[in-house]
Specification:
Elements: E1 3-5, H1 10-17, E2 25-27, H2 34-42, H3 52-55, H4 67-84, H5 86-90, H6 94-101, H7 103-110, H8 116-137, H9 147-164, H10 180-183, H11 186-191, H12 197-218, H13 225-235, H14 238-249, H15 257-274, H16 278-284, H17 289-320, H18 326-349
Antiparallel strand pairs: 1-2
Length: 350
């Protein structure tokens, strides 16, 4: 099979700007049955799963005391969304699946130290991101197999999000949406309107990345590891969640170019820490599934070390300039809590 050059999608172009993606020459695997072949090759193998939590044993953990109240509000939110959406209401198992995801625990684990108002907004943002993605990615998603309709869905979403954040373009048509999931961003956007251009950038990146992912899936094409990372940096929506947290809880960081550069780099490290790519690593290196697990473990460990190094270097620069910012110190603490909280939530969810 001839070698072909990796083509950059929009997410990959953004990562190249950050110095995290470089074009490679790769051997393109055959299409069609490769996903099923990969599952068949993995099924039945025995592996030792390293203690991922031990990698972060010196990082902070916590659980937001607002969890009981959040559980009530999340249940109300989910009921409202399902009851207002004919498609969601028609599914006898949709509400059950949403409840099983335990979004309240997700929020309380990810953001243990924020005030309740911020916790509520961030958790509702996470719910919106999860449900929005289900429409184009889940097996039962209404747009999962229809690229043209999903492109209209993305465009309608971007128009509405820009309007909700107060960043509508001059030539944008009126941002009115009859789609319940799109419209549910309204209450989130109204809270995030202050210094929200970075949130919009991350949501745009997220939506672009979901398009790249959907195109590959519809072509039954497995991405290369490089392509996966480039896309995953967007589809995980980590950037949107972290930037929203920064705006709401750490306003002392807003608007400073140096701080935004730090946030972008930390977003990438957090993304690596919470992402999984074991099947892909095995697909391109068939030595053993254990080797793929060990490789992923090393990647996550390195990302944790890189995060600490970035944080330490930045704090040293601030100390040398007599400009230590308490919001930055607390933000770094909170980002570490995002990572450990994700591990805690996944352990319960599993």
């Amino acid at each position: 099979m001839p070698a072909v050059a990796a083509m950059k999608s929009a997410p990959e172009s953004q990562l190249e700007d950050r110095g995290l993606w470089k074009p490679t020459v790769l051997q393109r695997p055959s299409l069609g049955q490769q996903r099923l072949d990969l599952l068949a090759a993995i099924r039945g193998q025995h592996v030792h799963i390293p203690d991922f939590a031990a990698v972060f044993q010196n990082w902070p953990t916590g659980l937001n005391p607002g969890l009981p109240q959040l559980q009530v509000e999340v249940e109300q939110r989910l009921l409202s969304l399902v009851q207002q959406s004919p498609r969601l209401l028609a599914s006898p198992t949709k509400l059950q699946k949403l409840r099983a995801a335990d979004f309240a625990l997700f929020g309380a684990s990810w953001w243990p130290w924020v005030d309740y108002s911020t916790l509520r907004t961030l958790t509702f943002l996470a719910i919106w991101l999860f449900l929005w993605d289900d429409e184009v990615d889940a097996e039962d998603g209404s747009l999962a197999r229809d690229l043209q309709k999903s492109l209209k869905y993305r465009n309608e979403t971007l128009l509405f999000v820009r309007s909700s954040l107060g960043l509508a373009h001059v030539n944008d048509p009126p941002a009115v949406s009859s789609n319940v999931l799109i419209y549910s961003f309204d209450t989130i956007g109204s809270v995030l309107r202050v210094n929200c251009s970075t949130v919009l950038k991350e949501i745009e990146f997220y939506i672009q990345a979901t398009e790249t992912e959907q195109r590959r899936r519809l072509n039954t094409e497995l991405p290369t590891v490089e392509e996966y990372w480039a896309c995953r940096m967007g589809t995980s929506a980590v950037g949107a969640c972290i930037v929203a947290m920064q705006i709401l809880q750490f306003p002392g960081m807003s608007g400073a170019h140096a701080f935004q550069g730090l946030v972008d780099q930390l977003n990438d490290k957090v993304n690596i820490i919470i992402s999984a790519l074991i099947p892909l690593l095995y697909h391109y290196d068939r030595s053993s599934i254990q080797s793929a697990v060990d490789n992923a473990f090393c990647t996550i460990t390195q990302a944790r070390m890189d995060f600490d190094a970035l944080a330490d270097d930045f704090l040293k620069l601030m100390t040398g300039a007599n400009a230590v910012n308490k919001d930055v110190v607390d933000f770094l603490h909170a980002c570490r809590g995002n990572c450990t909280g994700n591990i805690s939530w996944r352990q319960v969810d599993a």
